[in-house]
Amino acid sequence: MQLRECEYILAIARFGNMGKAAQHLYVSQPALSKMLAKLEEEIGAPLFERQSSGMLPTSVGEIYLQHARRMVELNAQMERELKNASGKKPVLSVGITMLRTDLLVQTVFPGLQRRFPGMVANYIHTPQSNLAVDVINNRCALGFGIISDKLQLNLRYEKVGEETYVLAVPKNHPLVTKAKCSPEWKYPLISPEDLRDVPFVLSRPDAYSTREANRFFEANGIQPPVALTLTTTRDVLYAVASGVGVSLVPSIPLSGVAAQNLTYLSIENAPEPFPVGIIYRKGYLLNRLETAFIDELLTVYSET
User: Fold this and answer.
1) DSSP characters for 13-27?
2) What confidence tier does 87 reach under pLDDT thresholds 50, 70, 90?
3) Rounded to whole angstroms, how far apart are CA atoms 91 and 123?
4) Which runs of E-coded beta strand occur in the chain?
């Protein structure tokens, strides 16, 4: 197995389409098709089934992909460790949801930089639904987000804290004075009844937070007015900070503009808490920078 062949086959599996894979790899489609045909001839079996829905790995293809991912992973890990050992700038490669970008950039990375001067943070924005795919396909070494049951089965993970769905409101909002403090709740508590006529800011319909908000509305028999719909939950927080409305969001530790202008309220009958943390491929060995990154996240979540 050659490293370049592994990368090409992984791209075909990722996109399920020769044209898109070739475009991603910056090679011509005929050249990619020729490489695949030659490899399948050498192996003596097809790696993909050509179906109307796309190219799907065969049983032989699944075996090849498993080892190809491992080879690409080991090569990338070797390069990172060699750079770190040679005194070059240490690199952190992580996929994050847009919502958690401010937390990393404004809170976690500064603390990490003091321990690793000159470090390079290479991060990509990816929706929660694509986080595992990007880690498995080596677009990033680590992923930071919700650790679902499915992710726990397919990847290794390090839990750094828990989040629950809370109501984000401007600090001067009337709901702040209406909320009741209780030792059983992390934030002052309000009832779903208090939200019936309160304007909400929502993310796009397919967003994880919007689906949770709609389930909450339905379960509690409320239909609050929607003041604004935005593309990302991160933008939703900025809009709430500007006084446009309120929003049901994960209780990520607030930082920057959000910390200055927003506060969280607990809500009765809110969705159950969920674990958040770092995911990475099975067999992947964390280096010193990545371990320190997890430690920084643990500290941030334990202090909020």
Assistant:
1) HHHS-HHHHHHHHTS
2) low
3) 10
4) 48-51, 54-57, 91-96, 120-125, 142-146, 156-163, 165-170, 189-190, 200-202, 226-229, 247-250, 262-267, 274-280
Residue 40: pLDDT band with limits 50, 70, 90? very high
Lowest mean pLDDT among 46-50, 78-82, 233-237: 78-82
Q: Which domains does the chain have, with CATH numbers?
A: 3-64 (1.10.10.10), 89-162+275-302 (3.40.190.10), 165-271 (3.40.190.10)
For the beta carbon of residue 237, count every other beta carbon within 10 angstroms: 24
Tokens (6 digits) for 45: 């079996």
Query: Which sign does the torsion angle of CA 169, 172, 175, 179 carry?
Result: positive
Q: How far is CA 137 from the centre of its chain?
A: 14
Listing DSSP states for 99-153 in one string gives: GGHHHIIIIIHHHHHHHSTT-EEEEEE--GGGHHHHHHTTS-SEEEEE--HHHHH
Rounded-to-integer distance, Cα 79 and Cα 76, Å: 5
